[in-house]
Structure formats: structure tokens, C-alpha cells
Amino acid sequence: MRCPKCHQDDDKVIDSRASRDGSSIRRRRVCNQCEHRFTTYETVEPGDLTIVKRNGSREPFDREKLLRGIVKACEKRPVSLTVLQECADSVIAELEGGGTREISSKLLGIQVMDRLHGIDPVGYIRYASVYRQFQEVGEFIEEINSMETRVPNSIKHPELAL
After folding, report:
1. How far is CA 43 from CA 23, 40, 83, 157, in A?
2. What does pLDDT average to over the chain?
3. How far apart (Å, rounded) are the C-alpha atoms in residues 141 and 147?
4. Which of 3, 20, 71, 85 is the most exposed place for a label (fewest CB within 10 A)?
């Protein structure tokens, strides 16, 4: 692993811990050259999942792209990166458990929104506005009003609650 500070690839692991759901391992490392400490995460790579976009095009599943979208939706919100990473891991685990190699972007978006609803309502609305391509203020109002009738997802996914 390359040190993010001096770019040397001579480091050692000083601590390893499994994530709450066991889908990744967090490793604390120290560079043997400059003694900079940094954290890496080791995860199992999803097995050849393909996302089918709205326009019918296909692209390989990208965990980092998924995580970027979730993080962007919760930007400047009191939600830790760890919780958002666990959210992404939970979505991936459910998609992989579905038994199919091609997943529609619609299903992926629904999975993310389902989890964000229980984590952060503002993040949920932000993600939904991009995913559903809201064009008018009325669509935001409708979505906010419908939130009150939904079952809180923190009950469905207590491991993702703040």
C-alpha cells in the first residue's frame, strides 16, 4: 500500500478490525519511511455486477460511485462516513444476494433511498431529488409529505441508525 504522504510502498499494519457487519476490514498502517499513519479498508470486490441505466446502456458496478452519491446527499449533515460506508455495504450485500448479475439503476436507487430514509431525512430528500429528477418545488413537497407515512427504516435497518 502506498503512503498518501511520501508515496513509498513500505508500510506495516498496526491495527486491524472488522466492520460491524463483517463486510470489510479497517486497517491502520504506518509508513516505515516517513512514519505517517493512515487507514485503509479491505472489502470483497462485488462479482461482476452490471448496472442497467435508464437509457438501456450498461456499465460495471462501481462501489466508489455509489458511495460518492450517498456522501454527496448527506454532505454537511451530522452523519459519519462510517455510517454511510455501512449503508453502501448494506446495499451491495442485498444486490449480490439477489442472485442476478444485472441490476437496474432504478432498483439501486430504491435500495439507497430505503436506507437513507432511516439514516438522515435531509440526505434522503437530496438523493431522491436527483434520483427521481425533480423539476418543480411541488415534487419536493409531495416527497416530504409522503415521508411521514413511511415506516422508519431505522426499524428495518437498526444497524444503520445514528
Report:
1. 6, 10, 16, 21
2. 83
3. 10
4. 20
Cα(80)–Cα(92) distance, integer angstroms: 19
Indicate the residue type of 155. Answer: I
Residue 134 · residue 113 · CB < 8 Å: no
Cβ atoms 95, 49 nearer than 8 A: yes
* Cβ–Cβ < 8 Å for 60, 40: no
pLDDT at 45: 65
Please tell me which residue, 45 or 52, carries the higher pLDDT value: 52
The Cα–Cα gap between 4 and 100 comes to 37
Which residues lie closer than 8 Å to 151 by C-beta, 6 or more apart? none
The dihedral over CA atoms of 108, 111, 116, 119, expressed in degrees to the nearest 10, equals -140
* pLDDT of res. 161: 42
Cell of 141: 413537497
| Other Cβ atoms within 10 Å of 74 Cβ, number | 23
| pLDDT at residue 57 is higher than 70 | yes
CA distance 108 to 82: 20
